[in-house]
Design goal:
mainly alpha, 11 helices
């Protein structure tokens, strides 16, 4: 992989990981339709993508640093009893929401890994992602909007199961978890905030599994890929930080129909990809 390709991947990752349009689906489709000479079935490719996720996770950690500090202070009992309880409850919710993806990912990773390099399947799931986003608007209960503080462990677990949809390339992790939050009575902004907080432990777990493979991979080839991945991760993190700020403001200002434009984009891009593949363009 060249430096230019790595940087393009980084910008794409930072922009699409948090927007509900599936970064993995784009990572499969874009190189195929632009005819990039990249072997996505190579053992080092998935760890490289995970390194881009490290950049995203770092950006989220920096953006939400105050929330994580408050959780830590709550664990140490530095607030009032009520606030300590709220912070500890938020941590439990995040842990509960992470469980389904951890278990399902361990079981299904190998059976579905071959789908990662199949553009047509990714395009179909991108269209399915549009359906999921539109369904999320239908599932929303506007009359009794909750905040993250009002959530129960059952709410967190259900959102966690929604997150498992993202193991299919073309279905967005952020989109699935935001839809899960809408189904439990959260508004778009609260759903996005909880989704972004969830992303940090999920991506960190994936990193622990995949990065050692990148370092070990075929000696010098692995070292070269690692150096590209580090530069790309820094780029991805910068773009992700900006994307987070834009999205939270967007969801705050467009709560009535926030997911609809993303659904239209996913459906259009998925159909266009299938047409290009069918005609061999």
């Amino acid at each position: 992989m060249t430096l230019i390709a790595a940087m393009l991947f980084a910008v794409m990752q930072g922009a699409t990981e948090l927007f509900p349009v599936s970064s993995l689906g784009h990572a499969v489709i874009v190189p195929a339709i632009l005819h990039w000479q990249i072997n996505e079935r190579a053992p080092s490719f998935l760890p490289f993508v995970v390194m881009l996720h490290v950049g995203t996770a770092s950006a989220l950690l920096i953006y939400f640093w105050r929330a994580w500090i408050n959780i830590l202070l709550g664990l140490l009992g530095r607030f009032s009893p009520l606030e300590n309880t709220n912070q500890r409850r938020l941590l439990i919710h995040l842990l509960v929401a992470t469980l389904p993806a951890s278990i399902v990912g361990f079981v299904l990773k190998k059976p579905i890994q071959h789908l990662f390099a199949t553009p047509a399947i990714a395009a179909l799931f991108l269209i399915a992602n549009a359906v999921v986003l539109l369904a999320g608007e239908r599932l929303r209960t506007r009359a009794s909007a909750k905040t993250v503080s009002d959530m129960s462990n059952a709410d967190a677990l259900i959102i966690g199961f929604f997150q498992c949809l993202a193991f299919l390339p073309g279905l967005s992790r952020s989109g699935a978890t935001i839809v899960g939050g809408l189904s439990r009575g959260l508004d778009h902004e609260e759903s996005a905030r909880f989704s972004f907080l969830m992303a940090t432990p999920v991506i960190a777990g994936a990193t622990l599994l995949e990065v050692p493979r990148l370092i070990y991979f075929h000696g010098a080839a692995g070292a070269h890929m690692l150096s590209l991945a580090v530069v790309a991760a820094l780029t991805s993190g910068t773009v992700a930080f900006i994307s987070t700020a834009i999205l939270l403001r967007y969801f705050h200002n467009h709560d009535r129909w926030a997911l609809s434009p993303f659904a239209a984009y996913c459906a259009s891009f998925g159909v266009l990809t299938l047409m290009l593949l069918a005609f061999g363009l």
